[in-house]
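Following up on my earlier thread - several people asked me to post the actual chain instead of describing it. Fair enough. Here it is, all 77 residues.
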Amino acid sequence: MEDIRLQCFRLVGAGLATIALGGVGMGIGMIFSGYLNAAARNPSLKNDLFGWAMLGFALTESVGLIAVMVIFFMLFS
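Reply from S.P.:
Thanks for posting it. Predicted structure:
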């Protein structure tokens, strides 16, 4: 009986942890929409801004990868 409850709580916790992935998707969208807006306003800085956009993308994506890692730890530990 306890093992079934523990498994249910693991599944609920893993489902709640996937909320972080929605935030990561929104963050990546905001980064690239800001990049496109800035590049449209000042095309001469497009190459410099692209590096900063990639840095923001990498940092935001790392949060998503950490969230996926936590989900797998919850499910398989």
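The chain has a mean pLDDT of 91. That should answer part of your original question.
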